[in-house]
């Protein structure tokens, strides 16, 4: 059984339990449920956007504990000050140490920034939760969904006004699941079976993703030179967690990277 299989098996139990505790009607009555969402597409494509989607992640199955002390409101608002175009907040507790309260705190601290609910979405109920807790954008992972599920979940997300990031790791997943009801396509550089990351995964897949989608490169990113190379290849956004979270001042790590990125850009164009 792969780690992804284990996560999904537990997730089904978790979602069933939560559905019994909080009805769909109750979620729809949350104060944030009817708000206007912040568009991640618009934020990423804005002039002067860094394209960085900065992630709040305490731990992961591949790295174990990354940061056990960071405060979610302080860290995410620091990310925004340092130039993050969007935020990503893990809400999976057993494997990533995230909570719904993390997402809600990030929302309250950053009213104008698009926020991704980072979790393993397998059920429409989780999209209602995402909206109620304050997310603007949801992740659908091709490796754990059928083409039909991607279509149905992304349609429902759109009905709720949420944008959709479809995550793929190889050409098979891309061919099988890409549809016009997703907005962003993320290539995960991390192989979820071996946990190894290679940016060549992103370099290889870019040609097969139409540029009508916002193309995102995910995981294992930490240096401006590599990011510049990925940007030149067509990536508009970079999903980065560990490189920031493993430091004592995640927002400073992002500010430094943004500074190096701007130097990369000017070195090449001059
Ligand atoms: O911490 P990293 O290597 O910068 O990676 C961030 C993000 O891409 C990673 O957390 C991630 C990508 N896809 C996921 C799916 C579920 C949980 C986590 C992830």
Note down, in words, how this protein is organized:
The chain is α/β, with parallel strands linked by helices. The protein has one domain (3-269): TIM Barrel (Alpha-Beta Barrel). The chain is built from twelve helices and ten strands. It has helices at residues 3-21, 24-28, 40-45, 72-82, 100-109, 124-133, 147-159, 171-177, 200-205, 224-233, 242-245, 250-269; strands at 52-56, 59-60, 64-65, 86-90, 115-118, 137-141, 163-168, 184-188, 214-218, 237-240. The termini are far apart. It binds indole-3-glycerol phosphate. Indole-3-glycerol phosphate (IGP) binds at residues 55, 57, 118, 141, 167, 188, 218-221, 239-243.
Give a brief rundown of this model:
This is Indole-3-glycerol phosphate synthase. Pfam families: IGPS (PF00218). This protein is 45% helix and 16% strand.
């Amino acid at each position: 059984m792969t780690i992804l299989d284990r996560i999904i098996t537990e997730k089904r139990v978790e979602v069933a339990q939560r559905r019994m505790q909080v009805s769909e009607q109750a979620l729809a009555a949350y104060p944030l449920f009817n708000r206007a969402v912040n568009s991640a597409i618009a934020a990423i494509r804005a002039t002067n956007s860094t394209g960085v989607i900065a992630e709040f992640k305490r731990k992961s199955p591949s790295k174990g504990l990354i940061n056990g002390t960071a405060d979610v409101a302080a860290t995410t608002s620091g990310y925004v000050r340092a130039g993050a175009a969007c935020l990503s907040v893990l809400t999976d507790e057993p494997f990533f140490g995230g909570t719904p309260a993390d997402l809600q705190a990030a929302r309250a601290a950053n009213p104008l920034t698009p926020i991704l609910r980072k979790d393993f979405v397998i059920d429409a109920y989780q999209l209602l939760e995402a909206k109620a807790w304050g997310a603007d954008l949801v992740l659908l992972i091709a490796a754990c969904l059928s083409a039909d599920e991607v279509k149905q979940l992304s349609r429902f997300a759109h009905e709720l006004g949420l944008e959709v990031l479809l995550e793929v790791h190889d050409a098979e997943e891309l061919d099988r699941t890409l549809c016009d009801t997703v907005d962003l396509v993320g290539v995960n550089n991390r192989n979820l079976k071996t946990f190894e990351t290679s940016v060549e995964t992103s370099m290889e897949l870019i040609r097969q993703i139409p540029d009508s989608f916002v193309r995102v490169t995910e995981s294992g990113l930490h240096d401006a030179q590599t990011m510049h190379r990925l940007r030149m290849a067509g990536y508009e956004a970079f999903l980065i967690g560990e490189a920031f979270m493993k430091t004592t001042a995640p927002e400073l790590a992002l500010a430094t990277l943004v500074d190096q990125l701007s130097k990369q850009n000017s070195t090449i164009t001059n």
